[in-house]
Amino acid sequence: MNNGRNLISWLLLGLLTVLALGGAVLGIAQAPKNVPLLQAVTNTLSAANYSEVLTENTPQGKQTDYLVYQAPDRLGGYIQSGSTRTYVFVIGNAEYQTTALPNNASTAHLVFYRRAGQGAQALDPAHGYLPYAKQATNIQKSGDTYSFTLEETTSKGKESGDFTYTVSGPYVSEFTLNVASASVQLVISQVGSSPPVKLPAGAKVVNAG
């Protein structure tokens, strides 16, 4: 599975999602009191499961990944890019991926190609992005929104990224990252109540070799 286009190391880009998301309403129900950002990051990453929608805008185009992460070792769903989608799952140390299919293609008999993988946490957007809050030294707070800027030295010189987190109750509900040529938005919902991650009924598995 591709772990991204690597514009800079912040942009993990190009991950996954789960069929069972269906028409789930985005957003987390507001808790009576929002916790501080770092506590919200810890709470979110410690949850048993959560649903994610990752939208990436890069010079190569737009891609949206619909995900469910299930601790400790499951992640699954599909990658939407233009008129095609690719179904991808991580279960334990194995990755399962289909070829790119038309958006309206039947999912009754999907064929997955299995190979050894990096594990669910390594590919989970929330685990990749949310911990950057721990590196910030000058966090600005406005209501339930926290923002800061980080700089990174790359082969092209210094790159800066603008990070924004929204906290809803005990969890992070939205994350955005903007760099000069790309942006990422991650919406997290259904924390603790997401559907289980498993291959769709009727799926066929072929070893990728």
Shape: globular
CATH class: Mainly Beta
Structural category? mainly beta
Give a count of the beta strands, DSSP E runs of length 2 or more: 13
Distance between the termini: 14 Å
> What is the alpha-carbon Rg in Å?
17 Å
- Topology as H/E string? HEEEEEEEHHEEEEEE
How much strand? Answer: 35-45%
Number of domains: 1
Main beta sheet strand tally, sense and closure? 13 strands, mixed
The total of helices stands at: 3
Query: Uncertain runs with pLDDT below 50, 5 residues or more?
Result: 1-31
At CATH level 2, the architecture is: Clam
Mean pLDDT metric: 86
CATH topology category name: outer membrane lipoprotein receptor (LolB), chain A
- The level of helicity is under 10%
Notes on the structure:
The radius of gyration is 17 Å and the shape is globular. Strands 1, 2, 3, 4, 5, 6, 7, 8, 9, 10, 11, 12 and 13 form a 13-stranded mixed β-sheet that branches. It has a single domain (19-207), classed as outer membrane lipoprotein receptor (LolB), chain A (Clam). It has helices spanning 37-46, 120-123, 125-129; strands at residues 49-58, 61-70, 74-81, 84-91, 94-97, 101-102, 111-116, 140-142, 145-154, 157-168, 171-179, 182-189, 204-207. Residues 1-31 have low confidence and may be disordered. By secondary structure, the chain is mainly beta. The two termini are 14 Å apart.
